[in-house]
Amino acid sequence: MLKILKGLFLFSVFAILLSVSSRVYAADFKADYQVQYNLFQTKDNLTSNVKFNIKITNLRGDVYVNKFAISFPRSFAISNLKSSDDHGEVIPKVTTDDQNIKVEMEFSNPNIGRDTVNNFYLTFDQSNLFKTNGNVWEVAIPVIENRQDGDYQVTVNLPSDTNKKISIAKPKPTTISGNQIIWDNPQTKTIYAVFGDTQIYDAELTYHLKNSDVFPIITEVAFPPDSLYQKIFLKSIDPPPNSVYQDSDGNYMGKYYLNPLESKTIVFDALIEVFAEPRDEMIPIIRSMMDTQKNYLLDQQKYWTITSLDKISSLQTPLDIYNFDVNDLHYNYKKVNSDNTRLGAQTVLDHPDQAVCLEFTDLFVAAAREKGIMSREVEGFGFSYDPQLQPLSLVSDILHAWPEYYNQDANYWVPVDPTWQNTSGIDYFSSFDLNHIAFVFHGKKPDYPLPAGMYKTGDSKDISIKATTEVPLDKKEVGIEGFGLPANIFDNKDYEGKFFIKNNGNVYLLDVPIEIRGGNISVTGDKTTIASLAPFEKREIDFQYRSSLKNQPAQGKISIYVYGSKLVESSVKIVPHIFETILFVCFGFLVVFGIIVVYKKVRS
User: Fold this and answer.
1) What CATH code would you report for 205-217+277-467?
2) What CATH number belongs to 478-578?
3) ∠ CA 310-314-317, rounded to 5°
4) HEC profile for 333-347?
């Protein structure tokens, strides 16, 4: 008698798993899969019509497949489910439990014999697989696992009227033709794709400051900075900081003066644009900053020290370290909502089942530095739709952490996320995403400055970030402060001048060209360029000047140009130095005359 093969297909968040009973062997059949996702857009929603074609080939003459089932998580919004085989419609048996919806089907009249083929067709609509996220579309497609030697093809058909283009794909598609993207035999357990080049977030961050001392203090807060992969469009900082500077890691630091026992609440409101590719205009700045950063980016620090070097002895490259991190540690979901204590690299090596994002990050940074690879930590916000796939595990407003390493060939920073690859199966090494927003960079110190969300004086919700379609606008405004010339200068002397240039706009100013032009005045240090100037930040500019005329009275002037436009101008009267001599002689004569008069009065 013919043996009946009962194939069971389980569809989970991560994968479709092929499961068979103990009587069935993979060598008895071959299954080929073709899956199509036909995308439709209605207003702000995306719906995909999904079509499964499962081709089962019998490899023996005495066995055949009779039944199979597909299970979907209950969170999947599936509707209009239809199934059929080669002979027509098949009525499925649908059962539901707390976690899954199981669809079980049986062939109506399966073909029997070696090399015979039976097809199963399944179609349904799904409304929450593809997601509209601000400017982009995003999808994480489960991939069939344990498919033996069968072929597997995933096709995504975008709407014909869309101008969205794929910007991030993990793994890379086999072919892209117009609005059709095809993956042949993907080897990952998830296909992740983003359609759109940049993402824009509306961010409102609250900082609570308190001076518990009886004397005044100056304290600092860290605002989200411009970086290689993000740009800040400031709406407001209320109240504005007393001063602003950028530290050696590129953090955007604001200083506030607090009176004794004073409390202060600061609200940072901005649009943040995140990019899929490095910003070309930031690369020279990143490279220039490395001249200072390289002095400490290999230092062992608290949390970034490994004593069990034998465990990482075989690791050499950033990819080696990343894969070790992903595979050796195990994410502990129980620690997310608890009072989590940061373990550091060595402790998590000893207890690999106690890791959350800080431990994945600390281990990567410590191992990279041990191998001579410059690296640092980023703390910020991860925009996650599914905490099981993409968990956020920093305390206080549930932030996220990930590492960066400095690519010596490209000569810039590369972010990676071993935590999210460990939990989702999505490759976060070869390319990143548009869901990571950097609040602070930790290269010099592992725990300073604190990111937004960590400035609390009570139980409050301080992080509000949402994707938006709002179009950000650059408002570039430059101010000059503290500039002025004396009323007179002599034509034989050198003079020191200075002024402050301040960014009064809403975006970072990059490569700011400053030119000091003189009229009848020669200027030393007349041209300079500021690499980066954050909103509210000001820098002091020093220069020297002297008269370009000799022995003739004249009017001089100095003008300051920024980006080729004159911002301020000041005039000065040029006095020939012979007048200075005459004045000196006259002054001397008056002094002598005065002495004589006084002397005569005393004698009388």
Assistant:
1) 3.10.620
2) 2.60.40.10
3) 130
4) HHHCCCCCCCCCHHH
3-state secondary structure 25-49: CHHHEEEEEEEEEEEEEECCEEEEE
Q: Where are the domains of the chain?
A: 3-196, 205-217+277-467, 478-578
Closest by Cα among 467, 436, 567 to 514: 567
Q: Span 3-196: which CATH code?
A: 2.60.40
- Find where tokens 């069990």 sit: 308
Instruction: Please report, in angstroms and rounded to a whole number, the separation of the first and last CA atoms in the chain.
Output: 150
> What DSSP element (H or E) covers 531?
strand 527-533
Match 């059962």 to its residue by tokens.
95
- Give the pTM: 0.83
Domains 205-217+277-467 and 478-578 share a fold: no
**Do β-strands 29-42 and 152-157 pair in parallel, antiparallel, or remain unpaired?**
parallel
CA 53, CA 86: separation in Å to the nearest integer? 11
Convert the pLDDT of each residue in 433-452 to its tens digit.
999 999 999 999 999 999 99
Q: At what angle do helices 318-328 and 357-370 cross, to 10 degrees?
A: 150
pLDDT digits (tens, 9 = 90+) for 107-166: 888 888 899 999 989 999 988 888 888 888 888 887 876 566 789 999 999 988 888 888
Collapse the DSSP code of 13 into the 3-class scheme (helix H, G, I; strand E, B; otherwise coil) and give the result: coil
